[in-house]
Amino acid sequence: MPESFDAIIVGGGHNGLVTAAYLARAGRRVLVLEARELVGGCAVTEEIWPGYRVSTASYLSSLMQDKVVRELELERFGYAVDAKDPAFFSPFPDGRHLFMWQDRAKTLAEIAKFSQRDAEVYPKYEERLERLAVVAESLLLTTPPRFPPRAVDLPEYLRLVGKMRGLTNQEIVALVKIFTQSASEFLDEWFESEQLKVTLATDGVIGANGGPRSPGTAYILLHHCMGGVNGHRGLWGFVRGGMGAVSNAIADSGRSREVKIRTGAPVAKILVRDGRARGVVLESGEEIEARVVASNLDPRRTFLKLMEAEDLDPEFVEGIRKFRSEGTSLKMNLALKGLPEFTALPGDSPGPQHRATMHICPSVEYIERAWDDAKYGRPSQSPLIEMTIPTMYDASLAPAGRHIMGIFLQYAPYTLKGTNWDELREPYSERILDVIEEYCPNIRSIVVERQTLTPLDLERRFGLTGGNIFHGEMSLDQMFVLRPVAGWARYRTPVKGLYLCGSGAHPGGGVMGAPGHNCAREILRDR
Ligand SMILES: Cc1cc2nc3c(=O)[nH]c(=O)nc-3n(C[C@H](O)[C@H](O)[C@H](O)COP(=O)(O)OP(=O)(O)OC[C@H]3O[C@@H](n4cnc5c(N)ncnc54)[C@H](O)[C@@H]3O)c2cc1C
């Protein structure tokens, strides 16, 4: 007799694993089917060169929900994060640099190097952002209300409005504005120094299909301020053991409650009979039945690749076709035999700059111009570059004396005009090193290995449609009650028993476990 399951989770990304662990915690028999040989999806640690354990996709943690960490006892299963300090290091072409530290007094002294006025305003800015982030954060573990609403949904909408209790009128106005403003407009209201504004603006465009002057990017900036590390709001940190340690902790938590996980098990089809999900067919042809199927795959992959159109409502299929999920991010991973030496802060022995996220983007206009290229199907000639060296916090990730560097880059559009990523991968990798070389002349001499993951590679390797790192753009028209499509933002789908548990559902992308958590709650409600 084949083993029987109450629920099958298609995809073993961290969200799928969270859904599985919560269902098992409620006594359900759960099977996770993961296409790759390892679980974690975009939160993985892979030994891509002997002795180097690399977070090949996501690289920093902050958004992971405390509730999930606590309830799934992730620390017991090895989850630990070291908060970055300093948070940021921005070198500038004129030879100056800006650090942002955990210690506010040190940060203010850094900002004062560029503007005394900005240093005075900064604490108020942080306080405002924190108060807004608390409200936005309270929505993360909330199932969006039905939309368009009916009269019976009024109490749910009132509860949402109630979350703004305690905000002043000025803060309510700021909250509404932040959902529509650009990161640049938002920052211009506070600061005068270009160096501070560009350092903060980077959070507004990470993963975005837009420049710092595109409406909606202010919200992405807020999205990146929502989490924290070890109870300290707004901090980002390195997961010990790399990002795969998050996923492995969730998987082990699930296994401790009898979740079964199969890797190397790509799902070819979600089975539907009489309008109900009945199970899945693997690429090998094996059929597995279950009354509940939850897909951790992005919405386009789930509904347009794994399902037959006739099993779905045509209007819904049309909505999914319109769901935008082309990415503009590129990841490069390097193995280094030394540390980068910055012209703006000489020295190649370990220094605070190497412990920070190191930015290459001298001005807001620079990022906007980088976006201009992408708008017309070209990778940015002068891209926004974020560099991190996790081995500064966890030396076990590389052989003794060696380092890993993660480079996250915007903008590398998935769809290129007149060429393709297989042709452009190598020349563009060289261009990236050229740009870094302008700030760190020794970079080429310390690189021993290099892996470039273009948006096409992100699609091929991690199954991200269009290479979008969030399973779909995080623009206002694809958020909350509209994610992935209006009327279907509550983790359910038009097929009974079929749910979405990945980042294509509210509240979107990032290693946070929220969609997985919320989906499990809705599945259990329906049962
Ligand atoms: C380059 C990059 C950098 C990022 N940096 C950060 C960061 O620093 N911090 C942060 O918080 N977030 C970051 N993100 C975003 C974050 O990693 C993702 O939003 C999040 O990990 C997605 O998790 P998920 O569980 O929803 O989906 P995924 O991780 O995408 O998991 C989906 C799983 O489904 C599997 N799958 C696909 N097709 C099939 C199939 N047919 N059958 C079975 N399995 C299948 C995939 O292999 C994958 O394991 C980054 C993402 C990328 C790509």
Blueprint of the fold:
Blueprint: E1 5-10, H1 14-25, E2 30-33, E3 46-49, E4 52-54, H2 66-71, E5 81-83, E6 88-91, E7 97-100, H3 104-112, H4 116-137, H5 154-162, H6 169-178, H7 183-188, H8 194-205, H9 217-223, E8 228-229, E9 232-233, E10 237-239, H10 244-255, E11 260-262, E12 267-273, E13 276-282, E14 287-295, H11 299-305, H12 314-322, E15 329-336, H13 352-355, E16 357-360, H14 364-375, E17 384-388, E18 403-410, H15 421-439, H16 443-446, E19 447-453, H17 455-462, E20 498-500, H18 514-526
Parallel strand pairs: 1-2, 1-14, 2-11, 6-16, 14-20
Antiparallel strand pairs: 3-4, 5-10, 6-7, 8-9, 12-13, 13-14, 15-18, 15-19, 16-17, 17-18
Helix pairs in contact: 1-10, 1-18, 3-4, 8-9
How would you describe what is shown here?
This protein is α/β, with parallel strands linked by helices and 527 residues long. α8 (194-205) crosses α9 (217-223). The protein is 34% helix and 18% strand. The strands form five sheets. Strands 1, 2, 11, 12, 13, 14 and 20 form a seven-stranded mixed beta sheet that branches. It has a seven-stranded mixed beta sheet with strand order 7-6-16-17-18-15-19, sandwiched between helices. The structure holds flavin-adenine dinucleotide. The site of flavin-adenine dinucleotide (FAD) has 38 residues, from α1, β15 and α17. Flavin-adenine dinucleotide binds next to α1, β15 and α17.
